[in-house]
Amino acid sequence: xxxxxxxxxxxxxxxxxxxxxxxxxxxxxxRLWGMYSIPDAQLHALGDVTGKRVLELGCGAGQWSRxxxxxxxxxxxxxxxxxxxxxxxxxxxxxxxxxxxxAAEQLPFAADSxxxxxxxxxxxxxxxxxxxxxxxxxVLRRGGRLVFNVASPWFEACYDExxxxxxxxxxxxxxxxxxxxxxxxxxxxxxxxxxxxxxxxGAGLVIDDLxxxxxxxxxxNGYNETDPPDWAHRWPAELLWVTHKP
Length: 246
Description:
Blueprint (H helix, E strand, L loop, with lengths): L3 H23 L5 E2 L4 E2 H4 L9 E5 L5 H8 L3 E6 L2 H9 L8 E3 L12 E7 L2 H4 L2 H11 E12 L1 H5 L1 E2 L4 E2 L12 E5 L2 E4 L3 H10 L3 E6 L13 E2 L4 H4 L3 E7 L2
Parallel strand pairs: 3-4, 3-6, 4-5, 6-7, 9-13
Antiparallel strand pairs: 1-2, 7-14, 8-9, 10-11, 12-14
């Protein structure tokens, strides 16, 4: 299923509202992961990027890319949506870094181009992982790393569509997770733990760590309502995969 055109239309339509609501939180300080804005200094997922060639796979308004460019990385921000890229360009400041329009499942880069490919609810949430992960592996240099944060299957399986919140009741079939309809033909993607392992290993990547970010009680979720409010302190809401290309 080709979700690229519909996903591009969706993000072009919602980009302004999304950035208005979320940019103050995402861009508050550098290197904040996921729905709970947990610092990378606490999770130790990305490491030192100074002098490294880095691709952000679904950069949105470039909050992460801006931060890593300021740390001395040679960053390229890629996004499917021209509206998101326009937001990134207007917020860029100094230093400058390139922005490229493209899809995670069809990366417009040569093999062995990057030391690090990463995303935080970016391309690996909005492209079929069976296509996007091999593309990320292809553009990585030997020894390069793929690091990415996505929703946990627990979070999706407990999402109450009618109520619009995550609860303590299983609602969706775990083994039925794959494409998730986002309206107007747009699709996001969710895999089981086993399917993520198979996709990553099938692309020739070595799994170094699986971090399950755990916010402290009282940490707000900037994107979803949960019942109880401390849901993600008790069960994993996100999966932060750390892998490398041998």
